[in-house]
Amino acid sequence: MCRWIAYSGTPVALSQILFQPEHSLIDQSLHSRKGVETTNGDGFGVGWYTQDTATPAVVRDVSPAWNNRNLEEIAHHVRSGLFFAHIRASTGTAVQQTNCHPFRKGRWMWMHNGMIREFHRLRRDLALAVEPALYPDIEGSTDSELMFFLALTFGLTEDPPGAVARMAGLVEKTGHAHDVRYPLQMTVAVADGERTWAFRYSSEGRSRSLYFSTHVDALRTLHPDAAFLRSVSDETRLVVSEPLGSLSGAWNEVPENSYGVIQPGRDALHDFRPALQGDSSRN
To answer: Which segments constitute the Glutamine amidotransferase type-2 domain (predicted)?
Structure first.
């Protein structure tokens, strides 16, 4: 599987999050504690927003994150208040740049940990459901990118939770039609430059790990000597595949079958369930 981080808050150098924590994403690329694989060396990607551009910058490479000098160079010189970072462990598709996360379409970014089981059998049926005008923009061969374009097809830009629910519903319906008992395993992050949505769901109810950071004001009370906490705003949040360190009280597990929204003002946590196109029920 993979490991990922979504950061939202006070603009910081990417290196503060990717390299400096005791169990940073770079450390996780070699020593994952909660992933299916200990090593995640099949490529990496970072994507970030700035105030100067409407679309995010995305840099991806097939080399392992732990020894890529370009990643280190970028991380020490780029500052952002909203960025994604992802390290990949392939579930069967090729190790190539176009299969590395995050994926981008316009102002939207998407990254995923998990799988569509028996994807080689389901791929054709799922691909046929992508809006024809969007299909030429699919560059790689992963289930993750196809999930993104299905969500775009189902209205991601207007209703992210509903679109992801309809994507998940189609994957499960298609999987069951091919006698796949548990078709979908996912933790997903998606952002539009202002808000970030994070989803945790699996067909069998045993989803991959996902955590969100405690409110910064509460952490300052718990850890008054932590210098990093004094330099970031109260609205700074991280969502991570596994905790970046052992600071007590810092991390909370995202509940099974739920999604959260990180946004200006009050964040929100909601139940999540798959839906089918035309289903009027809400998550």
So the answer is: 2-243
